[in-house]
Fold these 3 entries.
Entry 1:
Amino acid sequence: MADADEQSRLESLKAAIERHNHLYYVEARPEISDREYDRLYDELKRLEAVHPEWVTPDSPTQRVGGQPLKQFASVRHLKPMMSLDNTYSFDELREFDARVRKLLPGENVRYVLEPKVDGCSISVRYEQGRMTLGATRGDGATGDDITANLRTIRSLPLRLTAGMGRVPEFLEVRGEAYMPVDGFRALNEQRALAGEEVFANPRNATAGSLKQLDSRIVAKRPLAVVFYAVGVAEGVTFESQEAVLRGLRNLGLPTPANWWLCGDMEDVIRRSEELRGLEASLAYEIDGAVVKVNNLGQWQKLGMTAKAPRFAIAYKYSHEQAQTVLRSITVQVGRTGVLTPVAELEPVALAGSTVSRATLHNEEEIRRKDIREGDTVVIEKAGEVIPAVVSVVQSRRQSHTRPFDLAGHVHGKCPACGGPIHRDPEFVAWRCDNIACPAQLRRSVEHFAGRQGMDIEGLGEVLVTQLVHRGLVHDVADLYSLTVEQVSALDRMGEKSASNVITAIAESRKQDLWRLIHSLGIPHVGEGAARKLSENFETLDLLAAAGAEELQRIPDIGPVMAAQVVDFFANGRNQQVIAKLKAAGVNLRRLEDLQVVSVGPFAGKTVVVTGTLSRYSRDQIHEILRQKGAKVTDSVSKKTHCLIAGTEAGSKLEKARKLGVAVLDEDQLDQWLSEGA
Ligand code: AMP
Ligand code: ZN
């Protein structure tokens, strides 16, 4: 072949490879097989080997660089890379809208809503359509030159395509580098197998990868990019954010798959909910949405503050959802004999803690959502409750999975006692029929002793299991006849701790009536209902004698709960246990009503607790605050008087600061508690 022919072949190979890259990595609709792609690539490599002088940095063969760098060079951004102001509520979005309109009197304002991609900010420069520079945001004014690293990312075009018009002479685009969630999981799995540290989340994995001085390592990381802004452009102008998104896409740059042009802020709000619903199906993690005024002429008028533009704002989701892999489903036997499926998860950070288990409710729920072992699932934590699996990320399902069948899973037997199980048609649940099933007994003893029950310090899972296993406890009332000798003979129990437990059990005789009611484990009766019942009945005997109608007259007690209460006290076995508790001297009366606290710093205050406290459990501090006259709630709002923030406080703390709610740390809390009341 003549040189000229070879050179034109080389150019057409480069263009073809880039095009197929784009089709594969950006559009996800490849037109040729991997084999054909490899053939093109190999041909290009051969040509370049013969003519090294023809190798240019934008050649697809140059994505993976050579020697590692000593350090990154600094890049001064042509225009600063700003951060965004954050909001957390629709009201704040409306306030933003009002500010914008005030600055643009009489003008029509439309907004673009985009996902806020949770990756690392990048800036990429194209000169004459060729990628020449890539940088991190750094401090906004100067970043690191990570050109070699960004080049390895296949969804990043090394050349712009002409699209509809011409390629601009100069274009600096801005966006995010991110690690797609499934790539992230695979990477972590590999690392775990190799005994390497795993990354906490896709963003950390991205940041860690981009910091690598050796781009050959970066090339092995499953990174991707998405662009949503233009820093500087020559030879092209954009009139709106909408035009930016379309224009970048036309140039072959990946842009967010989901964005909306909205007529007004109410429309933005609706769409942000829509986006939130899509969260689990997106390739990247998002931490909210970004709202931008559409018209770039209006951007000029609105201008910037020192830190952030006035024409855009981030609407951040409070992070109460996360995605993770469901490793397996285990089946636990509850205190009423119900077999409850539990999701064993790949540990994941959620609302300030690490979660490795979540409830799956029951078999029907699993069927309805078609949750399978091995699935990638979305888990959610609402308030302080245990996290639950809300949905399956269908696009991540692997081929070998099977629908879940509870009875088959446990081979038709109770996993705790091996006894027969049957399906309770009313409660869509499988249950173990064996009244003496040790798992049921264990759970009911644990529940009895729990923090919101009789609150017996030291009577935890390990000890209860042994007590049941050794036949020392056949029902909760047996606890009160245990001796120090019996308990100290158990594994991991010294004389001292045994005597502590016995004392704690004895002390629990004096607990208030609501605790006793709750601790009995009447189906459907939680802590709140137990408090209600004890407010309405002075003694357990009066409650036991109440009819369904009388119960239903109590606000918040519905017919189902009323019936359960009546059934519970009509049951002969339960009557025996209650008689034994009575004989053991357990208090069955409501204690003197606590004085309504009207003095002291917490009296009448609405308080929220978040994060981890070192000296109190969540329940303890809630109880103490209630005793001091506070109303304890779950979420921070304008009505909250004060937030008590332990370590690792997350979105609630941010929100409180935003709303100007007083925040106390643990030391300040102790000070307040010791004051007056
Ligand atoms: P923050 O870091 O919380 O101040 O938020 C600003 C950052 O959000 C920007 O620097 C970008 O890295 C990032 N971001 C993610 N998605 C978008 C988007 N669609 N538009 C603008 N910025 C975004
Ligand atoms: Zn059983």
Note: The chain has five domains: 3-55, 86-316, 321-409, 438-583, 606-675.
Entry 2:
Amino acid sequence: MLDSEKVKCIGVLTGGGDCPGLNAVIRAVTKSAISQHELEVFGVEDGFLGLIDNRIRPLTFDDVSNILDRGGTILGTSNKANPAHYCIGNDPAGRPIFADVTDRAVRNAREHDLDALVCIGGDGTMSGAAHLVKRDLRIIGIPKTIDNDLMHTDVTFGFDTAVFVATEAVDRIRTTASSHHRVMIVEMMGRNAGWITLHAGAAGGADILLIPEIEYDLHKVCARCVDRSRRGKAYTLVAVSEGARPIGGEMVVDRVVQESPDPIRLGGISEVLCEQIAKRTKLECRATILGHVQRGGKPTAHDRVLATQFGHRAVELLMNGEFDRMVAMQDGRLTSVPISDVADRQRLVPLDHPLIAACRATGAIFGD
Ligand code: F6P
């Protein structure tokens, strides 16, 4: 298809880890495409996996009604299927064998006459999408992830809901922490970025925030717990990112998903800290790993609005012939950036972020 030709038929897929607001985007893309431009819309099941396996089905207006507030994704997703680096089995030693199956994915898209593909995902999905662009598939990306770590957009949908859930958890843990005079450590997701911990820690009034961007000194963390206890404070609340690590130390790996293009899954730092702090301070400590509860359930109003704006803008970009771009929010304005600028990159919390300064100024420490 030539760039000058009008788009008549599009595919939509959700890739990577799920997050609240995916259905709101699918709805916005499908409804805008059908009602405003009379496009034909197909849903690709389980992200790039469905494109590789040719599981592609029509999406109608009715299919996307009543899903605005629903968590998860009606299309399903996968965080193990990048067409350019796809696990096709294991060698005799059990090691995964990867192959480039982009040809297969492109063939399936062509079989359904897809003029373009809307890829809703994070950095891994944008990386897969960037490879498809090289094979002349026209792509529009929409930034999704609870981690809020995509380059060139100030915010991703899903983040606000994750922060809301994590803050609610911190609020609840505070009351039991107070009753038992304990050090309570709450572990939050985010991979290598501390956005969720920074925001939920600030919103929940955590006393100690540990994020991947600032290596912590265990001695200072313990000293703060002891100091608070000596000053008669009933408890200490620690908000820690799954990717946080001590000065010169390593992140705690929960598991390695061999067949995934991004195989490392973090998790467990709160339990390590719990033991270390209890041993050094003699204070009673407990750890809570919030885990996937941060990714499930209804999106907040903010995420529904953002998702709706992103989905609508994606269709506008397609109709304007602005391909191979990801929708983005910059300084409160909807815009778009080249997908290749986003693929395989992560946006970490800058050390001069004003919220870090605000937390410090209101008495919290980052363990540095
Ligand atoms: O990227 C979203 C995320 O929830 C991360 O915060 C977390 O590290 C990872 O996905 C967990 O992946 P999985 O669902 O494969 O355990």
Note: Residues 17, 79, 145-147, 189-191, 242, 265-266, 295 surround 6-O-phosphono-beta-D-fructofuranose (CB under 6 Å).
Entry 3:
Amino acid sequence: MEALRDGDCWFLRLDKDEDLFSTLEEWAAKEGLKSGHMSGIGALKDCELGFYHLADKHYDRKVFPNEAELLSLDGNLSFLDGKPFFHIHTVLGDEEFRAYGGHLFSAKVAVTCEINFRPFNADIKRTPNEEIGLNLLSFCKAGH
Ligand code: ZN
């Protein structure tokens, strides 16, 4: 991966066969990033997507091993259990030009992945929410 900082924003290029999440997490930790928003395009493979069922609080998961156009990646950075945590949703496209997508659990770069990242200054953590069954964004400031 190569990262270019331009003012407050970053431009990232992830390379073929890199693991999307571990590469981003290592970069965020190295740069001391606290939170932010990201978007991206490129091509991914070995994507595990999820659809969340609130009624029984579980994800249906499905792995798509084939190379896919990364039509849209949208996500954010926060902290979970003291570590950088990227929450990413994606729309992928197959060779028949069909689109599919969901919550992204894991993926590798198939060709390249081009990401814009805009950091925020706030320490944003995720905390468990019993009703929803997920770790939701928590904007509570320390000491308040
Ligand atoms: Zn999600």
Note: The chain has one domain: 2-49+62-122.
